[in-house]
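INTERNAL AUDIT FORM
Audit reference: QA-55
Scope: verify that the stored structure record matches its stored sequence.
Auditor: D.O.
Record contents follow.
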Amino acid sequence: MPKKKRFKLKFYFAALIVSAVFSALIFELGSYILVKTSRLPIYNPSHSVEFLTYGFYMDINQNFGVWHPPNSKFRHKTACFDVVYESNSVGARDIERTRDANTNRVIVLGDSFIEGLGVEKEERLTGLLEEKSKAEHLNFATAGNFGTTQYFLLYQNLAQQFEHDRLLIGILPVNDFRDDSYEYAQLVGDGSRYRPYWRGEYPNYELFYPVGSSVDRDFNLKNMTKAFLREFTYTYGAVRYMKNVLVHKYAIYKAQQRQAESPPKPQEHDPLSIYSGYYDFSPEEWNRMRYSLERLRQASGTRKMAIALLPSLPDLERYIPEEPTPLYLKLKEWGDPHEVTVVDLLPEMYRHTDEENRRRYFHDCDAHWSPFGSSVAAQYLFVQLKADGFY
C-alpha cells in the first residue's frame, strides 16, 4: 500500500476515534446537566470503587430469579435521594436475622415498595410497622420486576426457613399483574430473563422459565464493564432510561393495535387511559395471582396471613371515592374463606390529603413512596391490621 494512502487511512481512523470520544463526552456532559437540573430521573453514578460490584438486583436465584447478592452494598443515588442498600447473609435487604426465634415475628413479602426503594431501612413500611407493633418484621421483598409467583417461590424456598407466626404480603397493583405475565415480558424486551411464570389454565398451572435463560452468577467482563459504566458515568443511566421509555411506548402501541383488532372485554384495560391494576386486570391475570396466593396460604399453614394493597400515583388518579375497587372485592371474596385479612390502603391514602398534596407520597424524581408516603401507609395499615387481630 502506498505510503500516502496509509497515512490517509491512519488519519481517518484517528479522526473517527476523536469524533467518537468527543461525542461520548458531549453525551456525558448533556446527561450530567439534565440530571443536575432534575430533568432526567436516573440513577446517579457513585464514582466509588466500593460499589463496583454485580449491582444489587441480579437474576441469581435458581428458584425465583432476581435477588440481592448476600452481604452486598449498593448506593442508589438520584436527584432526590441518596441511600445505601445493604443485604444480610441470605441476601435480604434487612438486618441479620436468626432462623430460630421466639414467636411474634412477621415475614413480609413484596416488591420495590415493600423493600423501600429510595428510603432508609427505618423509614420504610416494615421498619415503621416493627416500631409500632414491637414485632420483628423480616423484609424479604425486592425490586427487579418481582411478582406474586416469585413471592410464593421465595417464601417456599427461603423465607419459610425463618421461624415466624405471621405472614404479610404487599401487592402493588400497578405492576404485579404485569410482572407475572410472560407475554408482557416479551413485549417489553424482558422475555429472556431468568424468572418463573405460571403456564396453563387455573388451577392446573405449571412453572416454567424462559428457554435459554440462566442464573447470572459470574462477574465476567460484560458485567464488570456494565458495573464500571454504572458507577462512573451518567451516560449509562441515561441510555437505560431512554431504552425503557421507548420500550414502554412500544408496548402501549402494540396494545392499541390489538385493541383495534378486537373490542375490549370486561375488565380489559383501555391503553389510552391511565393504567391501574386495581381496575385493569384480566380474568387470566387474576387467576394467576390468586393461584400464587392460594399456594402461599397453603404453605403458611395455620399462621395468620394478611394482604396489603399498595397504591401508586396512577391508582390515586383513577380512584372513584366510596366505591370499592374490583381488585379489593376479588381479594376480599377470596380472602374471607381462606382466613386472610385484606387491607386496601387506597381509600385512606386518598382521603388523607388533597389532590394538590398527594404527590408528596412519592419521591420528586421517582414513582416510589417517599418517607412521608411510607409513614402514612404504615399509620393506616397498622391500625387496620390491629383491629383485625393480626397484631
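Auditor finding: record pair retrieved intact. The chain has two domains: 1-37, 49-387.
Action required: none
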